[in-house]
Design brief:
Number of helices: 9
Number of domains: 2
Order of helices and strands: HHEEHHHHHHH
Largest sheet: 2 strands, antiparallel
Oligomer: single chain
Helix content: 55-70%
Shape: globular
Bound molecules: glutathione
Length: 194
C-alpha cells in the first residue's frame, strides 16, 4: 500500500508469496538468502545495496524517506510523534491478529482458548483506542492511516465485524478509505500453500 500510495509501483516487481500453514507455529526450512535477509524469518523484508530491513514499519518509513520526501511520515516534530502513537497501537492490533491466527492453526489438543481470547481482547481494546485517534487524522493517507486501515481490513476479513461494535466511527472511516485504489489492490486473501 505504501508503494502504491507513493506512486512508485513501476520501480518494483510484485511476487506472490507462498508458505505452509505450519510456518505460523513451527520453524520451517526457508532458503538461505531469505534467512539472511530476515533472521526473524518473518515477512516483509527489504534488501537494497545499502540496507537490509525487516518489519513493515521500518520498510515503509524507508520508502517514505527515500522516495516520498517524508510525505507519509514527518521526519521530526509533533506530527511524527502523533503518527507513531497511532502506528504503535495499530501495529499492536496486527501482531495480535497474527498471533491469534497462528494459535487457531494449532491442533485441537495444543490450542489455548485463553490465549486466543487474550489476543481478541487486545484487538478490540486497541480498536476502541484507535477510534479516539481519529481526530488527529489529516488529509494525507499517511503511515498512521495506512497501518490503521490495514488492521481494520484484516479483522473484517479474518474475524468478522466484531471490532466494528467497539469502534463504530473508526468503522465508518474505514469504509470510506477502503475505496482507495491502494486498498482495493491489496485486499487480504488466503496465501497459496507452499
Ligand atoms: N509486525 C511485523 C509482523 C510480521 C509478521 O508477523 N509477518 C507474518 C506474515 S503476515 C510472518 O512472517 N509470519 C511467520 C512467523 O511468524 O514465523 C511487520 O509488520 O512486519
Amino acid at each position: 500500500m505504501t508503494i502504491l500510495e507513493l506512486g512508485i509501483e513501476d520501480r518494483f516487481e510484485f511476487v506472490q508469496t507462498r508458505w505452509p500453514h505450519s510456518w505460523g507455529t513451527q520453524t520451517v526450512a526457508m532458503p538461505a538468502d531469505f534467512t539472511v535477509a530476515t533472521p526473524v524469518m518473518r515477512i516483509p523484508a527489504l534488501v537494497t545495496d545499502t540496507v537490509t530491513l525487516t518489519d513493515s514499519h521500518a520498510i515503509c518509513d524507508y520508502l517514505n524517506a527515500e522516495f516520498g520526501s517524508f510525505r507519509l511520515l514527518a521526519r521530526e516534530g509533533a506530527a511524527r510523534w502523533r503518527a507513531l502513537a497511532t502506528i504503535a497501537v495499530a501495529n499492536g492490533v496486527l501482531e495480535a491478529q497474527i498471533m491469534r491466527r497462528a494459535e487457531l492453526l494449532r491442533a485441537d489438543k495444543e490450542r489455548s482458548n485463553d490465549f486466543i481470547a487474550k489476543m481478541r481482547d487486545r484487538t478490540i481494546r486497541c480498536f476502541a483506542a484507535l477510534e479516539t485517534h481519529l481526530p488527529t487524522f489529516g488529509d494525507t493517507f499517511d503511515l498512521a492511516q495506512i497501518t490503521t486501515a490495514v488492521a481494520c481490513g484484516y479483522d473484517d476479513w479474518r474475524y468478522g465485524p466484531d471490532w466494528r461494535g467497539a469502534a463504530p466511527k473508526l468503522a465508518a472511516w474505514y469504509d470510506q478509505v477502503a475505496q482507495r485504489p491502494s486498498m482495493k489492490a491489496t485486499e487480504p486473501a488466503e496465501t497459496p500453500q507452499r
